[in-house]
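Example 3.
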Amino acid sequence: MMDYNRAVRVRAAPAPSGSLHVGNVRTFLYNWLFARHTGGTFVLRIEDTDVSRFTEEAYRAVLEDLRWLGLDWDEGPEVGGAHEPYRQSERRQFYLEAAGRLVGGGKAYRCYCTAGELKQRREQAQAERRKPGYDGRCRRLTQEQVAAFEQEGRSYAVRFQVPDEGVLDYEDLVVGKIATHLDQIDDFAIVRSDGAPLYHLAVVVDDGLMEINHVIRGDDLMSNTPKQILLHEALGNAVPAFGHLPQVLGPDRKPLSKRHGSTSITDFRAGGYLPGALINFLALLGWGTSDDTLLSRDELVDRFEVRDVHSSPAMFDTKKLDWMNGEYIRMLDDCELAELTQPFLAAEGLIDQPPSAVQAQNVQHAAPLIKTRMRRLSEAPGLVGGLFTRPEIDPAAAEKVLSVEHVPELLRRASVGLAEIEPWGKEQVEAALRAIAEEMGLKPRKAFGPLYVAVSGTTVSAPVFDLIALIGRQESLERLAIAEQLSRELSGAVT
RNA sequence: GCCCCCAUCGACCAGCGGCCUAGGUCGCCACCCUUUCAAGGUGGAAACACGGGUUCGAAUCCCGUUGGGGGCACCA
């Protein structure tokens, strides 16, 4: 079927506009999987030709995101390679040289139309229901007209001359056979009138120079492909194979974008997602096998085939990601989980950064208690916050649980019971409290609910016997006292 | 307006002409377990967009319709 006798060379080509968007990450991931699966080379190239739009900070964010995700590149910024540099802003000479060759060879020409003229003609064309692209007028300029423009010092852009008719077709790696009528494509600009090389030129020159032989990218770029094939041919490059990935959709079935909320890697990281889970999830968006859904990086690499990638768009389903992230959290051992949880506790001010020895110890104890209860690391503070600081009692929980008639009595007895325990430990705490529940003839649910509120401030948290044991006798008794007081007020008022 | 792409449960994936009374996973519902909440276990509801062909036979191939998306820049 598909023949990879050439060593595969693919690239990720982000425009550095800050933390990466998950949609782009999926594209990069597929390239990466393809390279790793075939033993090929994964190149990272930064597409920052439009210098005014991009910052150094955004550039670093991109590298940082890729590293966090574990998508390592074989050639590119900071690792080097045979085709340096890997930032387009530093490769201008190559583009200009290529543009010169194209003009010299009669494959491209100077266009003296101004932005204003172009805009006006475009609008007129649209008004007349004609296609809005460039009309090719500067192609037919006479010697005299050119001389006149040059005389008045008018600046020019460089346009690629596209054949007026004919059909260009290619076999798309994921979509299949694609045919384009060349009359649909107008003479597109490859160098701006201020001398800045444009996207199409830069991409084609770089893909040629870097010997990229498989271009896998979003299908929003699909209609660019004929243009780029034409450019490759004009430049004498080996034309790479192209594959176009469908968009990742938001819950409203529109392409996923900022307005859907958190879509950048930074957001997911801050939201408590693990890179492995995100990778696993993204890989399955548009590609998959029937049997397994939890796939390690190696398994993904092993099974991934570009030809199995879907040509239909997929929706980004946060629910499934959350579930999967929970699965990945459960695969962590307690030490790893404690380590990963620390920043989230610190962010809530529950522990110091770095944590004190006691705090670190407590986080370690907390890990097994929260492991099965979390889908995202950011949920840790809500589950075990009470371990580090005395929580506010949630009014709703108090109203619901503490206002019940038997509760003051229950909490008082619990205090007495806990005061007498010797030695202090989880088993003893549990035994004592269960004994009290039995004495009072209370079902576990009724008996322990108020304890949760007293200790955690809410009815939802890590198991309460563990919490009490970890918090210690002194602090536990104080919290019980506070809750008992509140309970007296509430139950008195209510009944 | 013109060009291009897409179409299986709510979602993701399996299905490559008979094994499909359409399978798995998430989510949802119910039950079990249970100190809350989870996790775990068991079971359940839930889809081939529509219309024509081709074929002995179509979710699978072809053509239309409808619906969705993308593109038509001196952005990338």
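Chain A has a mean pLDDT of 93. The longest strand of chain A covers residues 167-172.
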